[in-house]
């Protein structure tokens, strides 16, 4: 009974906080609302005994929202907690599409005859996940590692202000490097 | 707490995120919409795992969704930084030519 009450409370908090992201009038408040939504979903995942995934979701998203707040202060040149904003386009169509998608998904959820559960969870869910990743699902971990490495490289290339081509020219032969502020001893 | 109720909550989260991804003009707000959609996916995948087949391999799918969120955030911030640096804007409408 208590699980049901907690689940419903968390579900309401998650959805309302998610909606608040697009209702509140500052980006900082939107970030905090999104963090609340993620924490509520992470706690729901914990209710389903997936301890590792639930904790990772909560920790990662709280940190991400902190980064997002710093990002807004750094790049948007405003006090994000104080500056009201409402920047939307095609609001009516977006609302219609999202309501339509919800009705479609809800109809599927309610009408599909879902099968009953097969088997039970392992005694130690986290240890079982670790053994799975280090064993039969090693290929997934390998693929994830490659994707993350590619993301780091692509992110740095996109976000870097000046690359080696700006410093050394297109053929990388220019010496000395074209730096706005020369540095080093004797250079 | 049943599979249907959890999936309904996940559907609501997904739909709210879809609204944000479609309607917002600021790149960071579009990213927030996408993350809310992935938030709904995490909840749905967790529910499928718990209520249908609590096999350890099912949790791997959840990890993949979390990785997708991480990649989306990192690349979204990188693109927004580049957009801000090159065009002095953070609005999607000012970068509509990138879709061509």
Question: What is the tally of beta strands of chain B?
Answer: 0
What is CATH's topology name of chain B? Helix Hairpins
Number of helices of chain A: 7
Number of strands of chain A: 0
Give unreliable regions of chain B as ranges: none
State mean pLDDT of chain B (0 to 100 scale): 87
End-to-end Cα distance of chain B, whole Å, is: 46 Å
Radius of gyration of chain A: 24 Å
The CATH level-2 architecture of chain B is identified as: Orthogonal Bundle
Structural class of chain A: mainly alpha
> How many structural units, i.e. domains of chain B?
1
The general outline of chain A is extended
Low-confidence stretches of chain A: none
Backbone shape of chain B: elongated
Give the assembly state of these chains.
heterodimer
CATH class of chain B, named Mainly Alpha
Mean of pLDDT of chain A: 85
The SSE string of chain A, one letter per element, is HHHHHHH
What does this structure look like?
The complex is a heterodimer of chains A (187) and B (100). Chain A has seven helices and no strands. The mean pLDDT of chain A is 85. Chain A has 187 residues and is mainly α. Chain A has two domains: 1-84; 123-179, no CATH class. The longest helix of chain A is centred in the middle third of the chain and has 25 residues, at 51-75. Chain A has helices at residues 2-20, 27-47, 51-75, 91-111, 125-133, 138-159, 164-168. Chain B has one domain (3-99): Orthogonal Bundle (Helix Hairpins). Helix content of chain B is 78%, strand content 0%. In chain B, helix 2 runs antiparallel to helix 3 (56-87). Chain B starts with a helix and ends in a 13-residue tail after the last helix. The mean pLDDT of chain B is 87. At the A-B interface, helix 1, helix 2, helix 3, helix 4 and helix 5 of A face helix 1, helix 2 and helix 3 of B.
């Amino acid at each position: 009974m208590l699980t049901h009450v907690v689940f419903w409370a968390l579900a309401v908090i998650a959805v309302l906080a998610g909606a608040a992201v697009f209702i509140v009038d500052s980006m900082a408040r939107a970030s905090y609302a999104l963090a609340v939504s993620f924490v509520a979903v992470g706690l729901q995942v914990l209710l389903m005994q997936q301890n590792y995934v639930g904790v990772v979701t909560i920790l990662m998203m709280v940190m991400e929202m902190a980064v997002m707040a710093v990002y807004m202060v750094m790049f948007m040149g405003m006090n994000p907690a104080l500056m009201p904003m409402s920047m939307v386009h095609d609001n009516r169509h977006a609302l219609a599409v999202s309501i339509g998608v919800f009705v479609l998904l809800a109809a599927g959820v309610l009408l599909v005859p879902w099968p009953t559960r097969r088997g039970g969870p392992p005694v130690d869910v986290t240890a079982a996940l670790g053994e799975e990743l280090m064993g039969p699902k090693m290929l997934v971990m390998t693929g994830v590692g490659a994707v993350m490495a590619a993301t780091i490289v692509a992110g740095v290339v996109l976000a870097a202000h000046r690359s080696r081509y700006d410093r050394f020219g297109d053929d990388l032969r220019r010496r000395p490097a074209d730096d706005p502020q020369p540095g080093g001893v004797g250079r | 707490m049943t599979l249907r109720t959890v999936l309904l909550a996940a559907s609501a989260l997904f739909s709210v995120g879809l609204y944000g991804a479609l309607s917002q003009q600021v790149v960071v707000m579009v990213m927030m919409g996408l993350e809310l959609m992935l938030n709904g996916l995490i909840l749905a995948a967790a529910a499928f795992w718990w209520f249908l087949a609590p096999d350890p391999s099912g949790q791997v799918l959840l990890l993949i969704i979390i990785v997708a969120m991480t990649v989306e955030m990192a690349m979204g911030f990188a693109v927004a930084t580049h957009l801000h640096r090159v065009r002095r804007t953070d609005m999607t409408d000012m970068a509509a030519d990138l879709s061509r």
